[in-house]
Design brief:
Shape: flat
Strand content: under 5%
Distance between the termini: 51 Å
Largest sheet: 2 strands, antiparallel
Radius of gyration: 22 Å
Order of helices and strands: HEEHHHHH
Strand order of the largest sheet: 1-2
Length: 154
C-alpha cells in the first residue's frame, strides 16, 4: 500500500512538473537580451520537480509492497486538522474570511487544544481583528467579507 501511495504521489507531481515545463516553454524559458524570460525560473523548477519525481517513483518501485500507507491511529490527527480547515474555506465564501477564521480558531483551540474558554475567546477574536487592521486598513488589501462586515460598513 505504501508503494501505491508513493507512485500515486509521483504521478501527481509528474503532472504538475509537466504543466510547469510546458507552460514555461510557452512563456519563453530562455535568456533574453535583458535577462531571463518569464518562463526561465518556472522551467527549471518544473524540470527539477520532474527529476525528483522520477527518483521518488524509482525508489518506490524498488522498495516493493509493504505495510499500509497510514493506520487508523495515524489518520485521526490528520483529519482533526483537515476537516476544520476545509470547513473554514467553505465558510469563507459565505460569511467572509474574518468570521470564518474566528470560528475556525475557536473550534480548533477548544476541540483539539482543549484551551480555556477565556483564551479561546481572546485569540479567536483578537487574531481576525489584527488581521483585519493589517490587511484592510494598513495595506489596503481587500479580503473576502461577509454579512458582518457589510453590517459594520466595510
Amino acid at each position: 500500500m505504501t508503494r501505491t501511495a508513493d507512485l500515486a504521489t509521483a504521478a501527481l507531481l509528474l503532472l504538475i512538473g509537466l504543466i510547469a515545463v510546458v507552460d514555461s516553454l510557452r512563456l519563453g524559458a530562455g535568456w533574453g537580451s535583458d535577462g531571463p524570460k518569464s518562463g526561465f525560473f518556472p522551467f527549471w523548477l518544473g524540470t527539477l520537480l520532474l527529476v525528483v519525481t522520477v527518483v521518488i517513483a524509482v525508489q518506490a518501485w524498488r522498495r516493493g509492497p509493504g505495510k499500509p500507507f497510514v493506520t487508523r491511529e495515524q489518520l485521526r490527527p490528520v483529519m482533526q486538522v483537515l476537516w476544520p480547515a476545509v470547513a473554514m474555506v467553505a465558510l469563507t465564501a459565505v460569511i467572509g474570511l474574518y468570521v470564518a477564521s474566528a470560528l475556525y480558531l475557536a473550534f480548533y483551540m477548544r476541540w483539539v487544544g482543549r484551551h480555556r474558554w477565556l483564551t479561546v475567546v481572546l485569540i479567536s477574536i483578537g487574531i481576525p481583528v489584527v488581521t483585519f487592521l493589517v490587511f484592510e486598513q494598513w495595506f489596503l488589501v481587500p479580503m473576502p467579507k461577509g454579512p458582518l462586515e457589510t453590517w459594520l460598513g466595510y
